[in-house]
C-alpha cells in the first residue's frame, strides 16, 4: 500500500509539474475542466445523489465550468490580475471561513440536494479558477502556494505521529492532533522565511508569513470538511482513480480551501499599485 502511494504520488507530481510549466493555455484549461468534472462526480457520491441526479450534476458542472473557464482565459490575456472572478473568490472565502467551521462544529449533514449541489460548486469552481489565474500570473507563484500546503500536510502528519496526544477533531478525523497543527505551522513559517530569502524579497516577509500561515490553517479546515462529508456518506475515499490515494477530492481537499483565498490579496495589492 505504501509503495503504491509513493509511486502514484511521484507520477502525479511529475505530470503536474510538466503540465504547469509547459502546457499551452488551452490544454491547461482542458486539464482543469477534466479535474473539475471528475471532482463533481466524486462529490455526487459524497452527496449521495441518485444516478440520474449525478449525471445531471455532471453535465451542469461541465457546461458551467467550461463556459466560465473560457471567459477567464479571455480575461487574463488582457490582465492576469483581472478582478472579473473576484465574486467567486469572495464566495469561497465566506464558505470556508463562516459556513464550513459551523458545519464542522455542529457536524450537521447537509441534506437539501440543491444546497449540496451549490456546496460542491463552491468547493470545485473557485479552485479551478484560482488554478488558472494563479498560473497566468506566475506558474512558480502557484507552485509556491501549493508547496506550502504540501509542506503543511506532510509536517502535520509526521509531527502528529511523533508527538500527537490531543485530538483535533476526534469525531471527524481521529488521526489529526493539535501537535500536528503546531508542527505544520512551524514548518510553514520556516518555508516562508526560506521563500522570502531565496526570492530576495525579505521585505515582503510581513505579507508572506501571515498569508502562508492562514493558508496552512485553511488547508486543515478543507481536509476536515472532506473527511466530514465522507463520514456522512459512509465512504473511506471520495473515489479510486488514484491507486493508494483515493479520488481527486482526496488529493485536492486542502487546495480547495486555500487557493481561492490566496488569489484575493494578490488582486487587492495589484489594484492599489
Overall description:
Helices cover 79% and strands 3% of the residues. By secondary structure, it is mainly alpha-helical. The chain has one domain. It has a two-stranded antiparallel sheet. α2 (25-46) packs antiparallel against α3 (51-78), α4 crosses α5 (113-137) and α4 (86-106) packs across α8 (205-233). The longest helix is centred in the C-terminal third of the chain and has 29 residues, at 205-233. The radius of gyration is 18 Å and the shape is globular.
Keywords:
mainly alpha, two-stranded antiparallel ribbon
Topology:
Blueprint: H1 2-22, H2 25-46, H3 51-78, H4 86-106, H5 113-137, H6 139-163, E1 167-169, E2 173-177, H7 178-198, H8 205-233, H9 248-256, H10 259-272
Antiparallel strand pairs: 1-2
Helix pairs in contact: 2-3, 2-5, 3-5, 4-5, 4-8, 4-10, 5-6, 5-10, 6-7, 6-8, 7-8, 8-9
Q: Which regions have little confidence, pLDDT < 50, spanning 5+ residues?
A: none
Mean pLDDT: 91
Strand order in the sheet with the most strands: 1-2
The gyration radius over C-alpha positions equals: 18 Å
Short recap of the structure:
It contains ten helices and two strands; from the N terminus they run H-H-H-H-H-H-E-E-H-H-H-H. The chain is mainly alpha-helical. It has a two-stranded antiparallel ribbon with strand order 1-2.
Amino acid at each position: 500500500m505504501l509503495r503504491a502511494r509513493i509511486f502514484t504520488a511521484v507520477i502525479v507530481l511529475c505530470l503536474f509539474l510538466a503540465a504547469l510549466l509547459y502546457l499551452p493555455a488551452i490544454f491547461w484549461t482542458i486539464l482543469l475542466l477534466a479535474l473539475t468534472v471528475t471532482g463533481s462526480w466524486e462529490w455526487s457520491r459524497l452527496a449521495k445523489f441518485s444516478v440520474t441526479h449525478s449525471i445531471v450534476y455532471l453535465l451542469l458542472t461541465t457546461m458551467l465550468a467550461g463556459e466560465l473557464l473560457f471567459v477567464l482565459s479571455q480575461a487574463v490575456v488582457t490582465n492576469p490580475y483581472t478582478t472579473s472572478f473576484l465574486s467567486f473568490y469572495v464566495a469561497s472565502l465566506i464558505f470556508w471561513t463562516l459556513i464550513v467551521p459551523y458545519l464542522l462544529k455542529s457536524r450537521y449533514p447537509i441534506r437539501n440536494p440543491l444546497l449540496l449541489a451549490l456546496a460542491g460548486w463552491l468547493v470545485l469552481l473557485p479552485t479551478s479558477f484560482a488554478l488558472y489565474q494563479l498560473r497566468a500570473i506566475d506558474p512558480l507563484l502557484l507552485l509556491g502556494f501549493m508547496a506550502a500546503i504540501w509542506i503543511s500536510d506532510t509536517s502535520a502528519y509526521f509531527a502528529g505521529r511523533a508527538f500527537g496526544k490531543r485530538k483535533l477533531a476526534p469525531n471527524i478525523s481521529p488521526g489529526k492532533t493539535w501537535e500536528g497543527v503546531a508542527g505544520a505551522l512551524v514548518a510553514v513559517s520556516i518555508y516562508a522565511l526560506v521563500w522570502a530569502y531565496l526570492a530576495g524579497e525579505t521585505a515582503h516577509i510581513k505579507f508572506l508569513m501571515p498569508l502562508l500561515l492562514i493558508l496552512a490553517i485553511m488547508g486543515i479546515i478543507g481536509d476536515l470538511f472532506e473527511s466530514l462529508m465522507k463520514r456522512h456518506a459512509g465512504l473511506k475515499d471520495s473515489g479510486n482513480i488514484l491507486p493508494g490515494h483515493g479520488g481527486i477530492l482526496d488529493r485536492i481537499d486542502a487546495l480547495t480551501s486555500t487557493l481561492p483565498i490566496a488569489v484575493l490579496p494578490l488582486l487587492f495589492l495589484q489594484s492599489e499599485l
